[in-house]
Design brief:
Length: 121
């Protein structure tokens, strides 16, 4: 069995080194998201505390970004409709946050992460 690391350092390094190889693999919302890196063969499991979403041009017009179930529904739709277009845009383990972006619909997702776990496939 592969060893599991309870640290955000591995996903931070993975994102810094080869961010284009880091993709959304699986959703188990409301609290689990699995990211896979094809370059280093690692799986990164995120325990999500909160999820919000917005479209950049629309956010300026409305102050409140959809969160909770509405954001989860948007992310599920993006994953089902255009999984290849979803990518990781930001990883900040100091603030316990991860950002996702859908290139197809231009929607941004902000994840407040409670725990980072990494294991090798």
């Amino acid at each position: 069995m592969a060893q599991t690391f309870q640290s955000g350092a591995f996903i931070q390094q993975c994102f810094a080194s080869h961010r284009l190889c880091l993709t959304l693999k699986k959703l188990a919302l409301p609290e689990k998201i699995l990211l896979a890196c094809i370059s280093c063969n690692m799986l990164h499991r995120l325990t999500v505390r909160a999820l919000t979403t917005h479209v950049p041009a629309v956010r300026a017009a409305s102050e409140e970004a959809p969160g909770g179930d509405e954001a989860a529904d948007c992310l599920k739709h993006c994953l089902a409709a255009h999984q290849v277009a979803l990518g990781v845009r930001e990883v900040d383990v100091l603030r316990d946050s991860v950002g996702l972006r859908c290139a197809e619909c231009r929607r941004l997702y902000d994840l407040d992460v409670a725990a980072f776990e990494t294991h090798q496939r």
